[in-house]
Amino acid sequence: MRVKYVLSEVLVGLWRNVTMSIAMIITMAVSLTMLGASGLMYRQVDDMKDLYYKNIEVSIFLNQEVSEQERTDLDGKLKNDPLVKEVLYVNKDEAYKRFKEMYQDAPDLVNAVKPDQLPESFRLKLNNPEQYKNIYDQYKDTAGVDEIVDQSRLLDKIFNILTSIQNIALAAAIVMAIAALLLVANTIQVAAYSKRREVAVMKLVGASNWFIQAPFVLEAVVAGLIGSLLGLVALVAAKYLLFDGSLSALQGLLSPISWGDILFIFPLMAGVGGLVSAATAWITLRFYLRV
Amino acid sequence: MTKTYPKASRPSLDNVSVSIEKGEFVFFIGPSGSGKSTIIKMLLHEVAPNKGRVVVNGKDVTSMRSWKRPHFRRSIGCVFQDFRLLPNRTAYENVAFALEVIGKTKAVARRVVPEVLELVGLGGKEHRYPHELSGGEQQRVAVARAFVNRPLILLADEPTGNLDPDTSIEIMRLLDRINRTGTTVVMVTHDSNIVNQMRRRVVEIESGRIVRDQARGVYG
Question: Is the dihedral of CA A60, A61, A63, A68 positive or negative?
Answer without folding.
Answer: positive
